[in-house]
Design brief:
Distance between the termini: 37 Å
Number of domains: 3
Structural class: alpha+beta
Shape: globular
Mean pLDDT: 88
CATH superfamily of the largest domain: FAD/NAD(P)-binding domain
Oligomer: single chain
Number of strands: 22
Length: 495
C-alpha cells in the first residue's frame, strides 16, 4: 500500500510554461513582482505537450519534486507568502501517487489505500471533496481452500463474533488485537516514533500472538502495507499504522488515488508549478557567509534556476541520492537498505463473472502462491470502472524480475482460479501490469523516523524515507522541510 501522483479521469492534465519571466524581489519582500506565467490545459484524449523552459529564473525557494512531500512543502511556503517554484520531472503532480485512465477504468499505479486516520492528512485535505469510498473494516483471508473473515469488532460486531472460532488465529489472539489497539491509542505519535524499536515480527511474537494469526493474517495484511511479508519493518511503523487504522477507515477517492495530490496542487498558485522539467544537478554557490549559502538548480537542458532562500529536494530516495551524493556530509552517499518493490496487475470483468459484491480486501493466508492481496476495486468505488464492469486489482510483493508480464498474468489467473473458480478468474481480461521498483523505502530497524530535514543551510530534503513510509509521513516531511528553511532564513511570520 503506498504511503504513499497521472491523473484519474484527467489522464493528460498538463501545466505548460510560458518562458522568459523572472522573479524580481528584495530579501524579505515575499511577493514576486514578475511572476512566471503558467497556463493550465486539461485534455482527456491528447498527451501532454513538452514544457518550454526558462532561460534563467530566480525565485525565493525552489522545490524539486511535486509528490506529496513537495506539494506539502509548497503549501507551507505559500501560507507565509514565500515565493517558490515547484519543479516536476513528469507530466503530472503526485510522484508515486498516480492514476491512469485505461478504457474507462481508473488504475492506481500500484496498490494504494488512503487511511482517513492519518493526522497530517486531516489538516491538509478536504475528505468530503475527495468523496472517499470505504473498504470493509477487516479482511477476507484465503486459507485451507476457503475464505474466512477477520472483522473490526467495533464496526462489524456480528461478523467479529462469528469469526471467533475460525482458523485465522485463536480467541486469545483476537483479545490481544484489542489490547494492542488500546496500547497504540494511548500513545502520542511522537511517543510511537521515538519508542524502543524492534522488527514487527518480533513485536508480534513478544505480544504473544500465535503462529496461526501471524502467518495467516499479519503477514499478508501488514506485508501488503509494508511490501514486506517477512515483517522486518520497524515496530514503530506497525504501531503508527495500527493506530491510524483504529482511528479511521481504509478508503479510495472516487476519482482515483491521484485526486489527493491534485487537491493539494489546487491550493497553490497556478503559476508556481512547472511539469516535464527534469533536474540534472543541484549546485552550491560559494559565499563568504556560511549562513547565506545559496543553491542553483540546473535543468536537464542546461538552463539554471536560482533561489534566494534555498532549495527543498522532495524526490524519492534513489533520485535524492543521485542529486545530492557527495554534495554534503549531511546526506548519505548511497541507499543503505534495498527498497520495497511491488507488482500490481489489473483485470476487467463482467459484473456477472464476479460473485463478490462486498468492498472487502482479500488476503492470501495460505502461505502458498505469489498473490499477496487482491480486491474488486469497483466494489469499493463504482467510479473506478464503466457501468456493468468490474475492476480487479491484484498485488504481489517484490518485482518478480526474470518473469515476463505474460507469465505473471498467467500465474496470477491460475492462482485466483483456485480461489474463485476457473470459470470466474479465467474470464477476466488483463488491462495492465505495473512494476513499481521503489514502492516504499525500507524501514527495517534501526530507524530514525524524525530525521532533520536540513542538509545544510539553504539545502533541505523531504520525503517518506525521512519520516514514516506512509502518505502522512510524506506530508509531515514536506511541511517540516519548509519550516526548517523558514526558521533558518528568519522568514517565519508571527501568528
Amino acid at each position: 500500500m503506498a504511503i504513499a501522483a497521472a491523473h484519474s479521469f484527467i489522464s493528460s492534465s498538463n501545466l505548460s510554461f510560458i518562458p522568459s519571466h523572472t522573479f524580481h524581489h528584495r530579501r524579505h519582500h515575499h511577493r514576486p513582482q514578475s511572476p512566471f506565467k503558467i497556463s493550465a490545459h486539461i485534455s482527456l484524449t491528447t498527451p501532454p505537450s513538452p514544457t518550454v523552459q526558462p532561460k534563467l529564473n530566480n525565485t525565493g525557494v525552489i522545490v524539486v519534486g511535486a509528490g506529496l512531500a513537495g506539494l506539502a512543502a509548497a503549501i507551507r511556503l505559500h501560507s507565509d507568502n514565500i515565493p517558490f517554484l515547484l519543479v516536476e520531472a513528469s507530466d503530472a503532480v503526485g510522484g508515486r501517487v498516480r492514476t491512469d485512465n485505461v478504457d474507462g477504468f481508473l488504475l492506481d499505479r500500484g496498490f494504494q489505500i488512503f487511511i482517513t486516520g492519518y493526522p497530517e492528512a486531516r489538516k491538509l485535505l478536504d475528505y468530503e471533496t475527495l468523496d472517499l469510498q470505504k473498504f470493509y473494516s477487516g479482511a477476507r483471508v484465503y486459507y485451507g481452500g476457503g475464505f474466512h473473515t477477520v472483522a473490526d469488532p467495533l464496526r462489524h460486531l456480528a461478523d467479529a463474533i462469528q469469526s471467533l472460532t475460525n482458523p485465522i488465529g485463536t480467541i486469545v489472539d483476537k483479545s490481544l488485537i484489542a489490547l494492542t489497539r488500546i496500547r497504540v491509542l494511548t500513545q502520542s505519535d511522537d511517543q510511537i516514533f521515538s519508542a524502543e524499536e524492534t522488527s514487527t515480527i518480533d513485536l508480534l511474537k513478544r505480544i504473544g500472538f500465535s503462529d496461526s494469526i501471524v502467518d495467516r493474517f499479519f503477514r499478508p495484511f501488514f506485508g501488503g502495507i509494508f511490501f514486506d511479508r517477512d515483517l522486518e519493518t520497524t515496530s514503530r511503523l506497525f504501531d503508527f499504522i495500527f493506530k491510524c487504522l483504529a482511528l479511521g477507515d481504509n478508503t479510495l477517492p472516487a476519482k482515483g488515488i491521484s485526486a489527493i495530490p491534485e487537491q493539494l496542487a489546487a491550493k497553490l498558485p497556478s503559476n508556481s508549478i512547472i511539469l516535464n522539467t527534469p533536474v540534472a544537478s543541484i549546485d552550491k554557490q560559494e559565499s563568504d557567509s556560511k549562513s547565506e549559502s545559496t543553491y542553483t538548480v540546473r535543468l536537464n537542458n542546461g538552463e539554471v534556476l536560482t533561489s534566494d532562500y534555498g532549495v527543498i529536494v522532495a524526490v524519492e530516495e534513489p533520485e535524492a541520492v543521485k542529486l545530492l551524493a557527495g554534495k554534503s556530509n549531511g546526506f548519505p552517499a548511497q541507499i543503505r537498505k534495498p527498497a520495497r518493490s511491488t507488482v500490481c496487475l489489473y483485470f476487467s470483468a463482467d459484473r456477472s463473472k464476479v460473485p463478490v459484491h462486498d468492498p472487502v480486501l482479500f488476503i492470501n493466508g495460505s502461505g502458498n502462491g505469489i498473490v499477496n492481496n487482491m480486491f474488486f476495486a469497483t466494489n469499493v468505488a463504482p467510479s473506478y470502472g464503466p457501468a456493468g464492469k468490474v475492476l480487479v486489482s491484484v498485488s504481489l510483493i517484490g518485482l518478480h524480475e526474470g518473469v515476463s508480464d505474460e507469465d505473471l498474468r498467467s500465474k496470477v489467473v491460475d492462482e485466483l482460479s483456485s480461489w474463485f473458480g476457473k470459470e470466474v478468474a479465467g474470464s477476466w481480461t488483463h488491462l495492465r501490469t505495473y512494476r513499481v521498483k521503489f514502492a516504499q523505502p525500507n524501514q527495517c530497524p534501526p530507524t530514525d523516523l524524525r530525521k532533520n530535514p536540513k542538509v545544510e543551510p539553504g539545502l533541505y530534503v523531504c520525503g517518506d524515507y525521512r519520516t514514516s513510509a506512509t502518505f502522512d509521513g510524506a506530508l509531515v516531511s514536506g511541511r517540516k522541510a519548509a519550516e526548517a528553511l523558514l526558521r533558518d532564513r528568519s522568514l517565519v511570520q508571527a501568528s
